[in-house]
Amino acid sequence: MANHQKDFLFVLIKSLSKSEKRQFKIFASRLETSSNTKFIELFNILDKSDHYDEKLILKSGSIKKVQLSNLKSYLYKQILVSIRLNIPSQNIRYQLREQIDFATILYNKGLYKQSLKILDKTKTQAIENDEKLMAYEIVEFEKLIESQYITRSIQGRADELVIQAKEINYQNTISSKLSNLSLQLYGIMLKTGYVKSDEEHKYIDDYFNKHISKLDESKFGFREKYWFYNANLWRSFLVQDFLASYKFASKWVTLFYDNPNMIFLNPVFFLKGNHYLLESLFMLKYQTKFKDSLAKLEQTINDSRFPTNDNIASLSFLYVYNNKLNYHIMEGSFAESEYLIPEVLNKLKIHNEHLDEHHEMLFFYKFASIYFGIEKYNESIFYLEKIINNKNLSMREDLMCFARILCLIAHYELGKDYYLETQLKNTYKFLIKMNDLHEVQKEIIRFLKNLNSIYPSDIKKEFIKMKERFIELENNTYEKRAFLYLDIISWLESKIENRKISDIIREKARLNNR
Q1: CA nearest 313: which of 62, 40, 17?
Q2: What's the CA angle centered on 505, arms 501 and 507, to 5 degrees?
Q3: pLDDT in tens, 308-325
Q4: How far are the Cα atoms of 177, 188, 200, 230, 484 from residue 239, in angstroms, in the given order?
Q5: Among the residues of 109-221, which ranges form H helices?
Q6: How far is CA 125 from the centre of its chain?
């Protein structure tokens, strides 16, 4: 996975495609500088290396240690300039920025009317593509030229620009307020997690309503609607109202499908909206809608018009394969999903510079769940221990907790009493340090701790008793999410009925299919 402590220049060079490397070498050969040979040599050394090694660079002999820092900075800048010169022409943002630069050149030459003509045309394009920040920048530039009384423009031009500036500024202000609210809600999620009581629920609702009370949704354009749905989605996730999260994620995605040009202009927002839609459907266990939404997402990604770059490719892989695994887990078709594991592992290697360890661990937890579902407990433990033993990982405690609990259950299934006792002690130590311990987690630990002291003749009665307790907890708004990580009820039913857990989950999925 991506190590963000790596040398930035090295990571940038490794991210270049073959065509980008070729373009850079052609670009670099045109530069007439005294350090031309040295920075190309540095590029070639790093390009051929498997990892960043300063000793290897200095070993070349032509690059001295005192030169290296400045040479790296210069090379980094020239690579970006080369890429900038070869950006695909269909990227509307670069087109707009280029036209603004052209208008600036004409203005500086005193060719005011030519500059205004380009600005007016570019402004129309910016508004049509919902690039209102650029549109506002253009209007301000137009005002600057007009205010010099040089062009003798038609009467009323000043009023027109003032009105336009006010309208665009208002829309930008609304977008900024909503994006701030969305980010603040996301920050609360990272800091405190999901709400755990009615008091916390009320705090989030009051906080949210305070920030949107004076907004008029009927005046929203595309971007304002996007941020409005985004903020509502985070509020819904925080209070664990998954039906509302589905509603606003669906509105988010529909907004893009109703404005298809925005899909190709804002592919990252489109991908994230689909991911949240699928996550909501997974939480609600709406299998049919989930399957249809995932198929539609894949079809759009495979459209020849859909943008392609390293970031988009990594996000597409992350969201598509994450949800492919989720679909099989939800459906109980564990054996049918096993083929996906080597595919994901291979793609993780390809995208390792663009995904953090947290996402890798999420995949490992899903692998473990799949192997557990087909009773390959050793394989399940293998991936769970990768999560448990990762000392460098900063991630949500709930995933770490359930990885430990699932590992306990897998050891129990294998009958490894000694290892089970060790796992119990280690898990207790971990839970004591946790800030976000739910009743479900406490009950699972109590239950597993007592299993070894129960007489074999009474074990079934204990399973039934615990099943009833967990069903009670599953109906609790603030506890039900835990069952998405670990379907303890289906596992208990498999022990009570002496059936495979995959058969239990598959049967439930057929009954709940929506």
Answers
A1: 17
A2: 115
A3: 888 899 999 999 999 999
A4: 21, 11, 8, 15, 16
A5: 112-128, 132-146, 157-192, 198-212
A6: 29
